[in-house]
Amino acid sequence: MSDPKARSRKNTVDEIQQAIAQVQAGQGKVSISAVAKLAGVTPALIHNTYPDLAEKIRGLVGKATRTQRDAKHDALVREREINRALRQELAESRADLAKLASVNQVLLNEVALLKGVATGKVVSILQLKGAGV
């Protein structure tokens, strides 16, 4: 009599391959442990009895890791470019601010002078020359 829990090698391979597909489709973390749990076998069984499937899973893990690394690198490059543009904009804004502050100070001085001339507290040199003094 055969053990009712006994599996055929072909059934086990099929179950492991189905588990690999399910883990990939589920967007979960691909690992030998996750596949083994889903297939109802031990990770050691996959490592020792089905090294070709273990290598396939390791390849998927590497691909997933590479994909994540590349995505993070691309995001970092984009953020650095945004940062560079913002720094340039900040430098231009600071230059504009300094220029406007200078123009503003000149205008404030001119307004003060004109107020003084209008109230008679300040005498314009140009008016004195015209009066023949």
From TrEMBL:
Alphabetically ordered keywords of this record: Coiled coil
Keyword field contains Coiled coil: yes
Superkingdom of origin organism: Bacteria
Ranges in coiled-coil conformation: 76-103
Name of this chain's protein: TetR family transcriptional regulator
